[in-house]
Amino acid sequence: METLRQSKVSRMLQRELGDIFLKEKRHLLEGAMVTVTIVRISRDFSVAKVYLSVFGINNKKTLLSKISAQSKEIRHALGSKIKNQVRVIPELHFHLDDSLDYIDHIDKLLND
Question: 10: domain range?
Fold first, then answer.
């Protein structure tokens, strides 16, 4: 179960990471639209699992590997934004959020 502090930090990370992808790391996205859907943070606030929803590109796993390779630079940009609000800047682990793809698949099955 997530504590109140964990949920507040998760929402803050989601908002700030979305802003970083929108403004600072645009060159990394190859014209794709990336949305930070969920951030789950560990109890000690040292690790954050960031779930990304990717639109406008066919090879999502390649883009995810490029983003994961740049995780230290993204963490540094995040640290410069939230350094006064948290003690530890969490290590970022990026994952694809395929829930929208699953919804589309189910919708197609129901409409056939």
Answer: 4-111
